[in-house]
TrEMBL record:
This is Adenine DNA glycosylase. Its cofactor is [4Fe-4S] cluster. Residues 42-193 form the HhH-GPD domain. Belongs to the Nth/MutY family. Its EC number is 3.2.2.31. It comes from Galbibacter marinus. The keyword Transmembrane helix does not apply. Keywords: 4Fe-4S, DNA damage, DNA repair, Glycosidase, Hydrolase, Iron, Iron-sulfur, Metal-binding. GO terms for molecular function: 4 iron, 4 sulfur cluster binding; 8-oxo-7,8-dihydroguanine DNA N-glycosylase activity; adenine/guanine mispair binding; metal ion binding; oxidized purine DNA binding; purine-specific mismatch base pair DNA N-glycosylase activity. GO terms for biological process: base-excision repair; mismatch repair. Gene3D superfamilies: Helix-hairpin-Helix base-excision DNA repair enzymes (C-terminal) (1.10.1670.10), Hypothetical protein, domain 2 (1.10.340.30). Binds 1 [4Fe-4S] cluster.
Amino acid sequence: MKNRANEIDFREVVNSWYLQNKRDLPWRRSSDPYRIWLSEIILQQTRIDQGLPYYLRFIKTFPTVFDLAEASEQQVLKLWQGLGYYSRARNLHYTAKEVAYEMEGIFPKSFSELKKLKGVGEYTASAIASICYGEAVAVVDGNVYRVLSRYFGVDTPINATEGIRYFKELATRVLDLEHPGDYNQAIMEFGAMQCKPQLPLCASCGLQISCVAFQLQRVDKLPVKLKKNKIKKRYFNYIVLLDHQHTLLQARTKKDIWQHLYQFPLVESNDNLSLDELTKKEDFLDLISGKSYDIRLFNPKVSVHKLSHQHIYTQFWIVELKEPIPNGIHRKNIREYPVPVLIANFVKDFGL
DNA sequence: AACTCGGGGTT
DNA sequence: AACCCAGAGTT
């Protein structure tokens, strides 16, 4: 059973810590739901340092929800390139069009209506509703899980149904009903800067005395998270077709990573391939379809692109054709296409 | 309820 | 190498 006095103490310490330590971030200078929504989508599973330049570019390119709605999906994905979790960008664009064309550019004004928007879940709906409209709904993100689990000494796993429900209730209990928007940002900022995942600043923490995890020396054990699945290895052979001025890009359409981004024609295999093995593959032969070509391996040292759940071993094969590439694109236009970082790095290194 | 979706920062 | 990040959608 939790101590009511501790909960009040917790709230006040967090609020006063925030007044002293909060960063001056651009979306904190506004309560425009478009800007708050945009910032929250960009920051899903993304550190502020990584998302901030994207936010600035999006606001500059698309000052209003109408500007974003009128853009092409490819333009939105291109601006999103490098941020990852690309379905966020597609949902962002979808919702911009919905708000612009079906809601007259006005965002919904309650948690429950906001949550109906594509790409807006529990967390994001709570954030927008509390920050923009003062609705008393608690956010629960990775920071909140960490701060609450440590301070109240809760070892229920945060990524299973029971823990998700428990921490939502706890977060709601300690929410500052007078200033929910500022308080929500305060507890997240506190988690990001003070109660950090590793090497938290307990020595200078105003909550140290009443922090259960600190008193029990369990800070480094909380929060508890159930095991992650292991990393899958994949082997990609990208076929970089070249004629005088062109190359070939293809969209990724399968339900897989990088859906709707572009790449060179891909031959995926179960292991690294030699030149002989590659040139016997059906996918490769279909692509070449009897044309004469010169081929060389761009990176004899296989590059490894590491994603959260996949390690992708990649070889780039440069294939020069004497005749024009069917459906090829001008090399100079390659920058118009949204591509994974793996491809962008190659384009840069190769000098395409 | 478990899986999937990126890329980068911190130890 | 392991863990995490202002999570959401799908199966």
